[in-house]
Amino acid sequence: MRSRQYGPDLTPPWKKTAPVPEVPAEADLVVEEVGTGFCGAVIRCEKTAQGPVVTLEDRFGKHRVFPMEPRGFLLEGRVVTLVRPSAAGARGPARTASGSVAVPGARARVARAGRIYVEGRHDAELVERVWGDDLRIEGVVVEYLEGIDDLPAIVAEFGPAPDARLGVLVDHLVPGSKESRIAAQVTDASVLVVGHPYIDVWEAVKPSAVGIAAWPRVPRGQDWKTGVCRGLGWPENTGAAWQRILGSVRSYRDLEPALLGRVEELIDFVTAAPDH
Questions:
Q1: Which residues are CB-contacts of 110 (< 8 A; sequence separation ≥ 6)?
Q2: How many helices (H) does the chain have, and how many strands (E)?
Q3: With contact defined as beta carbons under 8 Å apart, do 141 and 116 qualify?
Q4: What angle do CA 257, 134, 99 make, to 5 degrees?
Q5: What is the pLDDT of residues 93-131, one digit of tens each?
Q6: Alpha-carbon span 160 to 152, nearest angstrom
Q7: Backbone region of residue 271 per phi and psi (left: phi > 0; alpha: psi in -120 to 50; beta: other values)
Q8: Which of 24, 25, 100, 221 would suit a FRET pair with 83, their CA atoms being 20 to 30 Å apart?
């Protein structure tokens, strides 16, 4: 039996599929999935029984998982095929919990005159957990106030100046709230008061990071943290509950964008060079 002899490929050029670049799916690479238009940064790549998949995170913190199919993504408007990065490429530059590039061997800077004030101990611990490395390199000290009822007097005592700026992070800073009325009393140009919409900084941690579907809705007049513990079926020990929540935070990806943006804004404000 004679074997068949195949000649050259006679497919017309206009019917051939042009090759596209293969791009390693390294962390923080921003791509768009062609089928859905979902745009986000690469969080991780995984090998599954159905083939390799990539997880993307959009600017609102939403995660989607997509198969790494040929010609499946757009990179800066060009069609590409994502491939799993090599072991060396996967490591990439070391990053801090806030997503900044880590500076190996960097020493803490001498503390600036400027400060960042937050309302409570839990706020301070969360900021330290995610931005601690950055704050030490920048020489920014974070202090907590145990509430902001006396904020105007606290600001006056601090004595802000162009070379000693003060940033303040306020919980539940929404229109019409008590917190918004207090914040409006601070008008010094060397002070920046910003806030997030959550009743407590606990809510600024994404429920998915804690392993819950959502934060419970606590009836008005009930202690919010105790109500959260009850709603989740946790022991009514708010200290232990906070340690459980804080322990679930690994990086900025575990926090809501409404908090991330405000803390970054404060750090930029406090570390900005004085105007001349």
A1: 139
A2: 8, 11
A3: yes
A4: 45
A5: 566 776 665 666 656 667 788 999 999 999 999 999 999
A6: 12
A7: alpha
A8: 100
